[in-house]
Amino acid sequence: MAEKVRLQIKTVSDPETWVDVGAGPVGEPVPVTDIEGNLTAGYSISDTAEIATIKYYGFLKADGGWYIMQKNAEAFRYIKGDSGYTTSWTGKAGLTYDYYNIVF
What 3 state SS string does 17-50 have? Predict the structure, then answer.
């Protein structure tokens, strides 16, 4: 049986309380699945790439939904869709990214 890790966070309302938010195999990304209001819950990292000084991270859901996070030296921006991840990932450098609160 593979060893697993547990991901926990402290709550804002009670900093002494730890809340389990995900679990997974050691050495693998741990999807955050149990935070109320977490709009990216259920997505798992699928791809990473770096083009010049910009990094890209692709995330997928089991139902085919996806988002790509773009990181430059100073900011994170996002784009998402319900299908067509492979095409979007291939053309990621030419897509239009926006702030988290606008995309989600």
Answer: CEEEEEEEECCCCCCCCCCCCCCCCCCEEEEEEE
Domain tally, the chain: 2
| Token pair recorded at residue 30 | 């741990």
Name 9's bridge partners: 19
Domain that includes residue 54, residue range:
39-104
Say if residue 56 is in the same domain as residue 86.
yes
Structure confidence by residue, pLDDT tens digits, 34-78: 555 667 778 888 999 999 999 999 999 999 999 999 999 889 999
Q: How many Cβ atoms are within 10 Å of 65's Cβ, its own excluded?
A: 15
pLDDT score, position 57: 93
Residues 59 and 97 in one domain: yes
